[in-house]
Amino acid sequence: MSALQVQAEAPLAAGRARGRQARRWYRQPALMAGIVILVVVVGMALAAPLLTSYNPIAQNLNASLLGPGAHHLLGTDQLGRDTFTRLLYGLRLDLRIAFIAVLFPFVLGVVLGSLAGYFGGWVDVIIMRLVDIVVAFPFYVLVIALVFVLGPGERSIYIAITAVSWVAYARIIRGEILVAKRQDYVTAARAGGLSSLRIMGRHLLPNVITQAFIYAMSDIIQDILAIVTLGYLGLGIPPPTADLGSMINDGQNFLSTHWQLTTTPGLVVVFVGLGLSLVGDGLADLLRPGQ
Amino acid sequence: MNRDEAAGPLLSARDVAVSFPVGSRVAARIRGEEHRLRAVDGVDMEMRRGEALALVGESGSGKSTLAQALAGLQRPDRGEIRFDGRVLPASRSRADRRRIQMVFQDPYSSLNPRLTVGGMLRELLRVHHVVPANRVATFSAELLALVGLAETDLAAYPRQFSGGQRQRVAIARALALRPDVLVADEPVSALDVSVQATILNLLRNLRDDLGLTLLLISHNLAVVRHLCDRVAVMYLGRIVEVAPTEQIFSAPRHPYTRALLAAIPRMTEGAADGSVPAIAGDPPSPLRIPAGCRFRTRCPMAQPRCAAEDPALAEAPGDAGHLAACHFAFVPAVDGETGT
Amino acid sequence: MSAETILEVRDLRVRIASRRGLVRAVDGVSFDVPRGGALGLVGESGSGKTMTLRAILGVLPPEAQITSGEIRLDGVDLVQLRGSDVNRLRGPKMAMIFQEPMGALNPVMRVGWQIAEGPQVHLGLSRGRAAERALELMRRVGIPDPERRFRAYPHEFSGGMRQRVMIAIALSCDPEIILCDEPTTALDVTIQDQILRLLTRLCRESGVSLVFVTHDLPVVAQVCRDVAVMYGGQLVERGEVREVLLDPRHPYTLGLVRSAPDFEYVRESLVPIPGSPPSLVSPPSGCRFHPRCAFAEDDCRTSETPLRPLPGVPGGRSTACLHYERTLEAVEADRARP
C-alpha cells in the first residue's frame, strides 16, 4: 500500500463529550426532586419489615380504631390493624404490581410497534387495526371488564392491564421507527447485508426507545391509579391483604372521626405520582435530541 | 489489479426503471398527472472494473435512485442488473451485498449515534466473516489507518467527530466488506470546502491503491472532473449522454449537457452581465414527463420530430465511447455552439 | 461618511452566549459597501459571515449580541437604534434574501400578498396599489403567469421560483441595499445560473447595493466586484474579487483556492488546509490562522493582525497577513508549474 496523502486532523476529545452529558443530569432540580421522592418511597417500601414490627393482616379487635399515638403512628383501623404498617405493605405491593404491570405492555407494545413500523405493509395494517379496536374502548371499561371476567387477583390485573396498555407503546415506537428507518445509517446497515431483525434490534431500537421509557414513567402512574381504583371497587387484590385502594375504600366510613385511615393512603398515591411525574419530565428534557 | 482489460463489464444495468407511488390514482388522473413518479425511466449503463464513472444531474434526474437500485437498496420495477455477468435478483444475498457498498451524502445521519466506530466495524466484519474473529480488532485498526484516522478512534462515538472525519469513518465502513464497487452519493456536498479536498484525495488514492471501481453521484462538475474517467449525464430519469470526462467537457453533444456546462459559475468570467441564462424555465414535473424527447420543452434546438420520437441513447459515428440521446447530437449541420 | 458609501461597518463585534462559554462569532470586522456596488463575504462555516449579515439587519438570535462597533447605513448608526426604529428601516432601506426560501416564506399566506405586505406596511400603499406593485415585481423577477401565481401558496412553487419570490419581496420597498445569505446554495446549477443573472441585472438596473455571503468562490466571482474573506470571525483579505481569488495575498485565501476543485483549473492534487477551524471561545493568539499556516513565524503568534492596505497595489487591496510575500511566492510558484 503506497503512502496516502491524508492530512492529520486535530485529536479527538474522546470521552469529554460524554462526560459533559452525564454531569448535567444532577443539575436539573425537577429531576433531582423526583428521584429523591422515588428513592424515599421505594426505600420505605423495601424496608417495610424493618420499619414496623406489626403484621399488616393481624387483627386485634381490642385495639380497634385507635387514634395516632405512641404504639401506632397513624392509629389502627376498625379491625385493629396498624395503619402505618398496612400503608407500608400496601405501598410495597402496589409498587411491585405497578412495575410489573408496566413491563409487559412495554415489551409487547415495543415489539409489535417495531414490526409494524419497520415492515409496513400488511403487518402494519393488522397491528394497527388491533390498536384501533383496543383504543375504541375507554381504558377503565376494558380493564374492569377483563378483571371481572378473570376474577380478582394479581394475575388478572396483569393480563387486563397488558391487554389494554400495549397500544400506546406500539404507536409511539411505530412512529419513531417510521422516521428513524429513513436515516442513512439504517440504509447503510441494509447495504451491509445485516438482517432485518438485527437492524431493528441493534440499530433502530436503541435510538428510539427513549420515548417509550419516558412514556413508561407516566404509565406507571396510570397503572398505580388503576390498581388503586380496582382495589377501591373491590376488584383488586382480595382482602385481607393490605392494598392502598382497599384501604381508601375501607376508611371512607370513618372519614369524620378517623380521617387518616382514608387520606393517608391517598396522599401516598399522590406523592408517588408526583415523584414519577417529575422524573418523567426531567428525563424528557434531558433526552431531548440536540441538547 | 490488471483485470481492467478483462472482457465484460463489472456492473451493468439494462432497461432499469424505478418508480414510486404518489397519492391516489383518481386524484392524479384529475390533475392530469401520472400516478407513479418515474424516478428512473429505462436506463442502460455499464461499468468496467477499475473505472470511475460519474452520474451527474440536477434534482429530479434520478441519479440517486439509480445508484440505490444498483446498490440493491431500491427495488426496480423492471430491467436487469448484472454483476460480473450474473443477474442480481431483486432481493440480494449477503454475499452479493458485499460486492457493492455505499457512502452517503449526509455525514450526520449516516452513522448510528449509539455505536462506537469500532462496534460498527466489528458487527459488519463478524456478520460477514471477513476476517477470523481474533483478527477483527487489528483489521478494524487497519481500516481506520487506510482513511487516515487513528486506532484510538475505534472507541469513539460519531458525535465526537467533525463532518470530514465522519465521512472518513463512513468510507472505512464501506471498505470493511472489501467491496468491488464503491458507490459514493454526493460524498462531499455537505462538507466545508477545505475539507472536501481531504475526502476527494482520499477517494482518489483509494481507487489507485485498491483498484476500486467507483460510481460517483454528484451535481458538482468540478468534483467530477477531478475524480472520474467517464461521465453519464441524467435528466428526468434517463441518461442523456455518456462519454469520457474530457470529451464531455470539451465536446458535449447533448443540448442539456451543454446548458449544464454553460451554467457553471466561472471565476474568470466577468460579472454575469445579465445576459441570457444557460437554460430558461423550470424542469418539467416528473409526474408530467413530456412525450417524445423529455428535454424538448427547454431545448433551444427543438424540432417537431422531437415531440414525436423519443431519441434513444446512440453512439457517435466512429466513437463507441461517446453516446448521446438526441436526434441531432451528431449531425454537424444543426450543431449550435459546441460546449465550453 | 462619504456620499459614495451606502454601508459602513466599523469594528463590529458579536458575542454569543453558549454552554461552552462566550463565542466571539464576529471579532472586529470593518468594511465599506459603495453605493450600487456588490461586496462578497466569503468564508467557511464558523467564519462569522452569517452573523455579520444578521447583525447588520438586526436579526441576531436571542443569545447573540453586538458588543461593540458601528454599522452606518446611509449615515445612521444601526447599533445605537432601538429595535422599533431598526424595524422601520427594514424594507425601505435594507432587505435580506435567505438560503432556504421554504423556511423564509409564510406557508399559509398567498405569495402575492407576501410580496405586497412590505409596501403596505412601509410605504403605506393601499391594498389595491400594493397588489399591482406585487404583480409588477413578479414580472420583473421572471415569474411566469403572475396573475394566476399571485394567489398561489409557497409550496406550489419550485425552489427556483420561491427564490424569485424572495427577491421580489426584497425589492418590494425599493431598498438601498440587499443582504444575501447563500441564496443559491440550495439550488441546482442551472437554476442558480438563472437567479444569479437575475440578481445582477436587477441590481444594475435599480442601483441597489449587495452584500453577498457565500462559501462558493466562483459564485462570488460572478456576482460581486469586491470580496472580503472571513476566517475565525475576522477579515483576512479584501479586494477586487478576481484579484483576490486568482492572486491571493493571504495563506487562508490561498488554501481555500487550492483546496476547492475548480471547474476550469484541473489541479493535479487538491491541497486541503491542515488542522481544523479555530475555537471561537478561546481563539488562537495573534493571527487566528497561524496554527494551520505553513508560513507562520513567531510574530504571527504574538501580534494582532488587522487588515492592512497592500502598498503598490491599486484598487484598495488589503490583507491581514504579516508575511504576505510568502503567499505571493507560492502563487507564482503554482503558476510556473506546467
Can you characterise this structure?
The complex is a heterotrimer of chains A (291), B (340) and C (338). Helices cover 69% and strands 0% of the residues of chain A. Chain A has 291 residues and is mainly α. In chain A, α8 packs across α9 (196-232). Chain B has helices at 25-31, 63-70, 94-99, 117-128, 136-146, 163-176, 193-210, 221-227, 245-250, 255-263, 304-308; strands spanning 11-21, 36-47, 52-56, 78-83, 86-87, 100-103, 181-185, 213-218, 230-235, 238-244, 314-316, 319-324. By secondary structure, chain C is α/β, with parallel strands linked by helices. In chain C, 36% of the residues lie in helices and 23% in strands. Chain C is built from 13 helices and twelve strands. In chain C, β7 (177-181), α8 and β8 form a beta-alpha-beta unit. The longest helix of chain C is centred in the middle third of the chain and has 18 residues, at 189-206. The mean pLDDT of chain C is 88. Chain A binds chain B through residues 1-2, 4-9, 11-14, 17-18, 183-185, 187-194, 198, 202-203, 206-207, and chain B through 68, 71-73, 92-95, 97-98, 100-102, 104-106, 109-115, 123-124, 127-128, 146-148, 150, 152-153, 155-157, 159-162, 164-165, 170, 173, 177, 198, 201-202, 205, 208-209.
